[in-house]
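Let us begin with a simple case.
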Amino acid sequence: MPPDLLRVLYSKSPKAQVFNPLGPSECSVWVVGGELKKENDIHIGKPIANTQVYITDQYGNLLPVGAVGELCIAGDGVGAGYLNRPGLTAEKFVDNPFGTGKLYKTGDLAYWREDGNIGYVGRNDFQVKIRGLRIELGEIENAVSSIDGVMQAVVVVRKNKEDRQLLCAFYTGEELGAKEIRARLAKSLPKYMLPHIVTHLEKMPMTPSGKINRKALPEVDLYHISSDKRYVAPSTEEEKAVCRIMETVLRTSPIGAEDDFFENGGDSLKAIHLVSEAQREGFVIPLQAIFDNPSPRLLCQWMNENDRPSVSYAEEDFSAIERLLSGNTAEKLSVPPQTDLGDVLITGATGFLGVHILAEYLNTHTGTAYCLVRGKSAEDSRRRLSEYLSFYFGSRFTDCARIRVFCGDLGKARFGLPEEAYGELTQRVKTVINCAASVKHYGSYQYFYDANVLTVRQLIAFCQTADARLIHTSTLSVSGNSFVDRFDGTVSGRELTFAETDFYIGQPLGNVYARSKFEAEKAVLEAAANGLHANIMRMGNLTNRKDGQFQKNYESNAFVKRLRAIVELGVIPDYLSDIYLEFTPIEEAAAAVMRIAEHFSDEKNVFHINSTKVVYLDRFLELLSQIGVRVGKISHEKFAEILRQTVRSEETKYIFETFVNDMDSDNDNKLAYESGIHIENAFTETYLRALGFEWSEIGTEYLRRYFDYFRKIGYFGEEK
């Protein structure tokens, strides 16, 4: 219902009654349709008698007020199915999980309003993914339609010759202009949802049944994109060169000196391409620099800053922290007695580690687990955690009375909680286990600082107020030993090791993620030196449970992506023969953290939680062979050639994307998985052994379940 039409109806006949029904034929035509009593208040009403409406997420879970999901209908009006269409019937008409009879999945997107009416968004047929972001076209259409003067609106995605996806908006009514419409939309929509091209039509093409005919929309110029920024020509030869390189990578022209790489179609893969093209032209630009300086002008300014200081802490005095860590040795080891953790606050409980630590606590303790979960509402936060618990543990913790969920945000004062709720936490919580973190490796440092450092400072303040212990989970990447940093492992010719007694050893911290985690540790250790009761758990490579189950967002895991690519190629370069793989099963990692926390000590305060049962490459290939996965070793030259071939196919391009950032340009583009920094965990291993804990051997059975899990979900291919 266009707002302008509703205004016309009421202006012509103030006593008119206007109804806006939703009526699928599959449910006997009319199921909802409230009266529209205000000129600017458009909705589709409430369910009629003998009809039940549910709004669910993609997994079939009920959504809270305000959350957009699929509108599903049950009740007396629901039909039996489609004539002679058994497949479609089975897909759309399902057993009602919330009651009796059948439930019809409409494919419409909607949300519950606080007044009990339903707001309509659009069709989920029109959900698209652009540069990794899911976009509901109906949401954009609704926003355009709500602009004064617009009668009808439709948004479609079209590709130009370079395969760039562009949001194209068409509208009827008063001709307002593309910039005016984008300016108004910017007040309610995020930047990535603003249409690239906006076109006014005298009349919208319609189908015989009265719906907008998307196929009949006119062709538009896909190369003159609507922009709110004026074009600024490059002023130096360097800027001209960088603009030209960006035009090549983005396949669009012109790119001005102040144009944002990512706003013009760039993404992480294109950023990698930009690094490669720039190097060919003689510009050495680290990948992170593009995220920090996304325009040609900013990039050139970055390159021209002579003697750029690297991230270094060499001038800082860490003597107090070094004294604090000096007790983390296996010599004269005495294990503290077991103590009760009491009621705990767990942050990051919807993460892979956090949810397993929550389960370990519930299985081995009797207290209450308070979980801080972000959400649109308290109900939304409870639903999110319930969804994750169900995904990993089935019904084991369904309706567990010992879990209390608080809808909050670590980045806000008092976690964004009402004073009463925050006060309850400070009175009840005796141990805080922080598993919350952003684990991406590229982006703005300000983002990582806010996500990984400021949040930890908030938790430190909470623990000081509540007189609670802090168990902070960190990462072994703070050592400088990671896939994303290059380091020869020496300082003044001295080989480096990184043990539980170490903090700053001169390691590289240019990577924004590792640096933010280092800064978070620094905050915890400085507070501990001043009386905070705190332990730090530096986590290693967390992998599948021993039953095969892995994290929900498996596609974001770099280690798994590398294994998938290697299995797909069926080969690995022979120069990697000396490396080893670490598999730290997630439930064992959680058990190790909890075992140490139960025997809390202020003197024993930093631990390396990574399995010591590593698997060297030759042994790994042998184990793979035993489970039917064939991966052979080949020369560097042959591997490089095979890798180049993967770029030519859409199906295998992900393999090149997986490895390209691991290539060492100083060493013939070989894959560089050795930082030269040796991680030591003799203290932690001895400590855990004294507590009766041992890491499991990684053998054929573990790897079989590991690979079977990824095959089952369709991420790894069939056995070779």
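The second case is a distinct protein. As before, the sequence precedes its structure tokens.
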Amino acid sequence: MEDLALFDEFRAEAREHLARYSEGLVRLERQEGPAKGEELNRLFRALHSIKGGAAYLGLKGVEELSHAAESLLDKLRRGTLEVAPNLIDLLLQAGDCLGRMVENPEASESSEAGPIAARLASAASGTSSTATMIAEHTLPPIQPPDHGSAGALPADPERDRTIRISVEVADRLMTLASELVLVRNQALKKFEPRDSSERELVQRLNLVTSEIQRSVTETRMQPVGNLFQRFPRVARDIARQLGKSIDLAISGTEVELDKGVIEKLADPLTHLIRNACDHGIEYPADRLKAGKPATGAIRLEAHHEGSQIHVVVRDDGAGIDPARVARKALERGLISREESAGMTPSQLQELVLKPGFSTAEKVTDLSGRGVGLDVVQANLASIGGNLRIDSEPGRGTEFHLRLPLTLAIIPCLVVEAGGNRLCVPQRDLEELVLLDGASRQRVEVSHDRLVYRLRDQLVPVVRLGEWLGAAAPADGEPRFLAVVRAGSGRLGVVIDKVRNPEEIVVKPLHPALEAIGLFSGATVLGDGLVSLILDMDKLARRSGANPVPAVAVSETVANAARKLHLVFEDHAGGRFSAPLESIRKVVRFGPGQATLVGGRASLSHAEGISPMVGLAEVVPGLPRDEKPDSGYLLLPKGKFPRNAGFVVADIIDTVEEPRLRQAPPMKGPGVTGAAEIRVRSEQAGKLTLMLDPLALADAWEGAA
């Protein structure tokens, strides 16, 4: 190969063509009429492009196999042969072989290519027993594309606007951007601006660093569709192997994730899809007896929420039977009879995450070896994600994966426990509770375990300082309870002090610290000192605490229907509340952090730059404030123009939605009512204006 760079270009393009080729073949079986003809045309063009590039580079084996598959596709698109599962299998085998051949120029002459090409030629000639003749005009007439020269690749209008860089260069850029974030944090801590010019310089440094970080992160972002496109083939192959009928639907392919996260996600998702096909979806006869369609449905979807990505694998199969799981767990010695008797159905279903667990009656190529969902959970934990299982016997199962956008730079809350400064990833943090007065009395002892009564739900409590070997502070000192996600449940962690949120760069742990089993990494804070990053799953396992599900089993329908509201004040002293579920992030800012961008005060944070919108701009009758020096920025969920947020002076508390609501003193879009709301630090309630942030965002967008 004289020009290896040219071959690398061909290989990158061939990978893209083969990925679309495999995905299109799986779709082809379910298509009819003009849609089938268009799909066959796309498949033909993909192979023709590969053949042309291979001929130009002298890859004879790739050229001949591509030509054989192309000839069979030509018969199918002309309507001479019928699209049949066995022909699809043969074309998929050809695609797999081509993929292996284009990866290595030394192995371009594959020994398996000849037999596959011979079978393709036999099928195209109509002599194969799997190829059946059909009427000439079943498919609409399709005009074949102009083949042109054998060595000409089709012009790509996108090529002039994109470049390819090596993974090593992208990784190096991310490392440098991460180090720049550390330097920025240290500079902001140590450098105190003395006048407006110095303050502007610091703001500019902060802004440029955030933009560099965001831009470099975007170079590593890839759509999850690149990963998802392999799974229709996986589901089809397993369905044919087991004699089942399965339809896999995919959505959210445009959602982007860091390349490193996608690589770590591939194996867990493959296992979950195989698990749904093998254990979840029933055989057609069993589904018909249960009143279901003969074809089982699996849905794979992804969506973005705040700084995290949610991936869901859902099937309409048999679900997870808690009794059967308990029986298998007892047989394998994973739990005792006493433990199983005290477990709820959801806790029994989560036993499928135990190492060595399997419900398969016999060992097959797909299941029964005891290497199961525990590996999925471990792989997700290694990238800061977690897995939640929701299943209803007879109705289906849902696996919910929560993942970070990127692995390199994450927002954390810096806390203190036992005299040690630690970082709690914000993706794990649900809420903070001040333990003083009445709230301290909610810490109880149940079955020799500390628990906290949080809105009629008992959350297990871990005193972090004790696990770090530090003496407990005096009882009179106020402390905080951090309610965090651990696995598929919630855990309360007692901490001594809350310092400040900070963007941190994750560094690997020393083996001696990793052996402790409480931390996921380390970082350098803004003052130059090292801090450890807490791993909530490891803390729950080490402490023996059993995190409770996010919704209590005994919770009444009335309580479940009442939402939590965030109570806050503006800079004029007005009291407001908004549904907590409508706010995706709260960003605190101090003097000098807000800067003017396009004539509007804006704030730079982990997710980019957010224009700052005062409540008076969208709620009529409120007094207008000058540019605030400090406060909080509320970023609502949903599509808010330019990632803008609402400026408030202080966060007061979270309370349950008031039962009684009255007409508000002023009317306007986004003002839903008023109520007397009493927070825990007050003896009497205070009139509070209730807001809908999403409606306020729409009103601001319409006025902007």
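DSSP finds 20 helices and 30 strands in the chain. The longest strand covers residues 296-305.
Keep these points in mind for the review questions at the end of the chapter.
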